[in-house]
Amino acid sequence: MNVQDLMWGKGPRLHVNEGQSKSYQVADEVLLFLAEHAHDEMHTLETGIGVSTLLFAMNRCVHTCIAPIADEVERIRDFAREKALPLDTVTFLIDTSERVLPGLEGNALDLVLIDGAHGFPVPFIDWYYTADRLKVGGLLVLDDTQLWPVHVLKEFLLREPEWRLEKDFLPRSTVFRKTQPGSCVKNEFWQPYVVDRTIELLYPGHIDMIQPYLPADAIHDWERRERPGSLLNLRRARAFAKRVLRYLHRKL
Length: 252
Prior knowledge:
Number of domains: 2
Mean pLDDT: 83
Distance between the termini: 58 Å
Helix content: 40-55%
Strand order of the largest sheet: 5-4-3-6-7-9-8
Radius of gyration: 22 Å
Largest sheet: 7 strands, mixed
Number of helices: 11
CATH class of the largest domain: Alpha Beta
Shape: elongated
Oligomer: single chain
Strand content: 15-25%
Structural class: alpha/beta
Low-confidence stretches: 225-231
């Protein structure tokens, strides 16, 4: 088999929904990207299981697959035996990622695919416990970015200087390259996405939420500020939001 076979529906139908076997595989362009960038002896990890797992195995990656449903693991093993595809470089960990990842040890990672559970907060947990293990220069692939939790993670990483957008497979998938360490250890007011969303939450209609915690001069500054229509006002609003966050961080 090759990647084209996997794209053309010859891969396994691992997932069962309402009694029907289905394949919730990543998009064809993502499979092609993985086929090009996931090479032999690279250390790779995915949350979730599917056609992508076979691709990592075919490319001889030292691969970790975290999947909570034992039957799906058995189905992919059966398919691999039928097609004479070796799985000797793949380690299956049958449990949920939020249980496995915090205690998982091993080599630094070259590529991570987050495509497991998509409900809040699992994609954030998957990122948090793999980001520091991913090498600088390594690739992070997010699948199903059309879903709110993964979309928010994508929007967050777009603002982080430690991550660079490598490829955007709209509307479902995005690839980031890690450019430097340290993204997981920041306080909230050093995260641009958090600062911006805080401005939207607090300015201009929610002063009552934080007024009890602010000094009088900050309240006066807040009340006389206009809605940020210009770039200058937007910069001032962001600077003020950072002051608010720092103050709350000390008080709360």
